[in-house]
Amino acid sequence: MAVIRLPITEYKELNLRAQKAEELEKTNTELIAHKNHLEQEVQTLKELIRLERIKKYGRKSEALSDGQLELLEEKPSVEEAELKDLDAVNEPKKLQKDEWL
User: Fold this and answer.
1) Are residues 50 and 65 in contact, defined by beta-carbon separation less than 8 angstroms?
2) What is the pLDDT of residue 28?
3) How confident is the model at residue 87, as a pLDDT?
4) Contact present, 69 and 57 (Cβ < 8 Å)
5) Residue 50 near residue 73 (C-beta atoms within 8 A)
6) Of the candidates 39, 62, 42, which has an alpha carbon nearest to the alpha carbon of residue 52?
7) What pLDDT is recorded for position 39?
8) Domain count, the chain
9) Considering the domain boundaries, does residue 2 fall inside one?
10) Average pLDDT over the chain, rounded to an integer
11) How crowded is residue 14: how many other Cβ atoms within 10 Å of its Cβ?
12) Do the domain assignments include residue 94?
């Protein structure tokens, strides 16, 4: 096997690249471990939220999907002002005496 002699500058450059590659590999491994930890934490929090919703809405809510439980938590689709407008429109008309049966 032939030995290749490199100039000192090329040897230093290759050595620095190897060190940088090792540092990047270590950082990558740490980031993957952190990502996995965060994903597990998100799953735990989602399960806690689901259990709280079941507690809030009763045992029948166990049959509801996660999406349905989320809808129960959202803002109502009808605003208070809209309800007042409907009440004004649907207010019973006061009959005059001559209109009575």
Assistant:
1) no
2) 97
3) 55
4) yes
5) no
6) 62
7) 95
8) 1
9) no
10) 78
11) 11
12) no
Contact in structure between 73 and 57 (CB atoms under 8 Å):
no
pTM score of the predicted model: 0.51
DSSP string, the chain: -PPPP--HHHHHHHHHHHHHHHHHHHHHHHHHHHHHHHHHHHHHHHHHHHHHHHHHH-GGGGGS-HHHHHHHHSPPSS-HHHHHHHHHHTPPPPPPGGG--
| 100 domain-assigned | no
* pLDDT of the residue at 60: 64
Instruction: Look up the domain containing 58 and give its range.
Output: 8-88
Give the Cβ contact number of residue 53 at 10 Å.
Answer: 19
Residue 44 confidence (pLDDT): 93
Instruction: State which residues of the chain have pLDDT below 70.
Output: 1, 6, 59-62, 75-101
101 is a domain residue: no
